[in-house]
Amino acid sequence: MKIFLTPFLILIANVAISQNPDQALTRIKYHFIHIQDTTRSSGPHQENMVMLIGKNASVYTSFDDINKSIARNKLMLEMAKSLDPGLVSIQVERKGLDTEGLAYFYFATENKFFTKERVYHSYIIEENAPKINWKITSDTASFSGIICKKATADFLGRRWNAWYAPELPFQSGPWKLNGLPGLIIDAYDEKKEVQFQFAGMETLIHQTKNPNHAEPKLTDSDVSLIQSTIIQLPSNTIKTTKSKLDKLKEVRDKDPKGFMNAQMSSSGVKYSATTTSPSTIVQKKGIINNPIELKANK
């Protein structure tokens, strides 16, 4: 199959979208569980996620992807050092959270929501923040000592249950969930096919330090996230719309190898014996008959 990409699909450009950067104050981790294939409900997709939250903005992305990126970069540096033992370690200034894969940015004051997704190139979709008609209940619960209230809503084809913390005055939540008078700590749909389970929270900006308190040992990914305390949109993205990106993904899924060849050609990448084969770049996708978004709100 030959693939012909319309101009908007092969456009290669860096697009800067104007949104004020925000200082991240808190980091929250979630354990994401999603039954993507209802014929295999015993083997759901599971992933560790992270959200950085500031006074006005938040970004939600995969913590596992961040770890993989750090490990890959570390391996590349070690390989370079093995070729040149005198190579000096390169320090990279981190101005924001490293989000190579899917990421969701929410700016409360501007009422703007951005979805960043990689389909060979990195694309970004700008839209108004989704309005969710939450119904707050009288139910309460505690998550690691954080007192939360329960709210329910019908949103994108699912009935959601969300636990939010009134004492944490952030309107953010995992994925596209937002708009409650407090940070969403835990959420799931009524069938529990999609779950965002609370997995811990910590403050990134400390006013004072207790000299008698021993600092915890940090992993590479923890150090990366603590250094990345600025929430801002990535600049190396191509602005598009959801419908256009869906068409691009449809082309990719019909003929992954042809799609990759076309993208590499449009980027000026010549395929040779030393170039990674397109078939190895495109990963085989599992069956997804149960996406998170089942339908648009009416």
Could you describe the 3D structure shown?
It contains six helices and 13 strands. By secondary structure, the protein is α+β, with helices and mostly antiparallel strands. It has one domain (15-205, 217-281). Strands 1, 2, 3, 4, 5, 6, 7, 8, 9, 10, 11, 12 and 13 form a 13-stranded mixed β-sheet that branches. Helix 4 (242-254) crosses helix 5. The longest helix has 21 residues, at 63-83. It is globular.
* Whole-number tally of structural domains: 1
Give the N-to-C terminal Cα separation.
38 Å
Largest sheet: 13 strands, mixed
Q: Topology as H/E string?
A: HEEEHEEEEEEEEHEEHHH
Structural class: alpha+beta
Shape: globular
Number of strands: 13
Range of strand content: 25-35%
Parts with pLDDT < 50 across at least 5 consecutive residues:
1-16, 90-96, 206-227, 271-283
Determine the mean pLDDT: 79
Helicity range: 10-25%
* Tally of alpha and pi helices: 6
Based on CA atoms alone, the radius of gyration comes out at: 21 Å
